[in-house]
Amino acid sequence: MTGGYGPGPFARSLAWATVLYLVLPITIVIPVSFTDQRFLSLPQETLSLRHYANLFGSEAWLSAIGQSAMIAVASTLLAVVAGTLCAIGCWRIGRRSTELLRALMLLPLIIPSIVYAIGLYRYFGPLGLLDRFLGATIAHGVTGIPYVVITVSAALAAFDPRLEQAARGMGASLSQTLRWVILPRIMPGIASGAIFAFIHSWDELVIVLFIASRQVFTLPRKIWDGINENLDPTMAAVAVLLILFTVLLLFLDGAFRRRRES
Amino acid sequence: MNGAVPGHALTLERLTKRYGGFTAVVDASLTVEQGQFLTLLGPSGSGKTTILMMIAGFVAPSEGRILLDGRDITVLPPEKREFGMVFQGYALFPHMTVAENIAFPLRVRGLARADRDARVRATLDLVQLTQFAERRPTQLSGGQQQRVALARALVFDPALLLLDEPLSALDKKLRAELQEELKTLHRRIGRTFVNVTHDQEEAMSLSDRVAILNHGKLVQMGGPVELYERPRTRFVADFLGKSNMISARVAEARQGGAVLTAGGTRLVQAMDGARAGEAVLLSLRPERITVLTAGETAENVVDGRIASAAFLGAGHSVTVETADLGRLRVTIPTWQASVAPEEGVPLRLGWSADAAAPVADDEDA
Fold this sequence. Notes:
Chain A: It holds the Pfam family BPD_transp_1. Chain A: It is a multi-pass membrane protein. The complex is a heterodimer of chains A (262) and B (365). In chain A, helix 8 packs across helix 10 (174-202) and helix 9 runs antiparallel to helix 10. Chain A has 262 residues and is mainly α. Chain A is 78% helix and 0% strand. In chain B, strand 17 and strand 18 (327-333) form a beta hairpin. Chain B has helices spanning 48-56, 98-108, 113-126, 142-154, 172-189, 200-206, 224-229, 234-239; strands at residues 10-19, 22-32, 37-41, 63-68, 71-72, 83-86, 160-164, 192-197, 209-214, 217-222, 244-254, 257-262, 265-270, 279-284, 290-291, 300-311, 315-322, 327-333, 346-351, 357-359. Helix content of chain B is 23%, strand content 35%. In chain B, helix 2 crosses helix 3 (113-126) and helix 2 packs parallel to helix 4. Chain B is elongated. Chain B has a six-stranded mixed β-sheet with strand order 6-7-8-3-9-10, sandwiched between helices. Chain B contains eight helices and 20 strands. The two termini of chain B are 45 Å apart. With 365 residues, chain B is an alpha+beta fold. Classes of the chains: A mainly alpha (262), B alpha+beta (365).
């Protein structure tokens, strides 16, 4: 990385153009959230915090945030436990058949979520899971598993298998080896997967549109309805908070990655 | 950890390991007596590590049995065997401190905290690492890491200590130092050690017994001196130090010896069961050949001319071209060489009848 030649002017401007292309649509909501108008627009005369005040004073918005947070936490838990065990199992068995299993676990990531949502709708109906906290948690948890499988598998690839042999040679049972040797070593990978699974649930809309209606009303759903029904700038305020929150999570993930590499 | 606890005897019976069509170990049988230091020595791919992994329980043998004090442990999983092991590269837990690493086997056994701490401290003392207890393994030098691995393998009073190339990651000087420590430790605790290495000097200096392996077969087992002086095959002679190979034929069998001919040269050789006319391969160590001065004689005498010479500090390594025996490598101690050996100088070489050892030719086996 050090002592190389810097990029040429063409590559440099292309890179910046890409950055702008990615970031501009996101940043546009920031001034909009400070608008003094009553509809989605850029500030006309002055900057105003009224939409933020509105957000924190609104029962409906706060309830949506609370529900989203609860579903995200519960589904993250589900995804982390299932994904970690799956990744460790595949790693331990290490045969070709486990490659197939691992590919299978990535399906929710590959299949369009609308297809997945239709399938869930068909199954959740008879099971009484439609419009239930449990239903949304299972749906988000299962679709969050791939993120955990990917990050934990990556952490395991860097895990020295002799550490496991050493632990067992010293008399450790499988569960002791798992708790004291394997899990602490792959913890940064698990944390990384948990963050992604959380973000996945936190901003998931398509599945929720299918399997929830009145009782379960998540934040993305609330924003969606808001855009459809009225152009309340409170949504921009919510969007800004979401961006800040996500950036925070990604920084956290970066910190875990650095720890894993050290 | 006191000297009164006896070591344990380990027996391998006709151990074989196959991986698909590849046979890693063939029919290996051997016994390590209580308190002995055995080294499995061989080039890479000789099956020595596979044997160690079968003893440890990480690899299941295809055939054969493993006995500890006469008890069959072939199917016992590694965590039930109570063997200490020092892995290649040590396999220390990077997320634990030195003390936590050493406490691990005790924690696994559910020892009370106070008891655990006392034994960790005693073991740290044993390997002289007391002041490093709270460090992480990555903050230690290679030699220190090796000692932590040793302490961790010994802290739970294992029945057997297994060492997988324990010194291979260290530089030459440190290796010699730790060899000495390992030897002292073995004497002090009286445990049975099984070591694996490809370094013949390490094997010779550490072990009571050495088992030499090649292509998955146990070629010869014995004390270091016996193996060096009386190799049974060409491979053993070549692998343990340097050796001159002399092809000859028995001209006349005598009591306890034979007269051999190699080209036009007659040699006398101490050996049993020689039959006239049969081909014999001799292994002759370079240091067993002496340079004869004018008037001196020996049981075997050969004339030659120096083809090349190299000065190695303690001695000169000289290659002598002879008419009938080809090139012979000779080591001349520096104090005996009155002038530096130079190319083209004629030399008369001599050796006694018991200097060489007849060996089987197994080079293409």
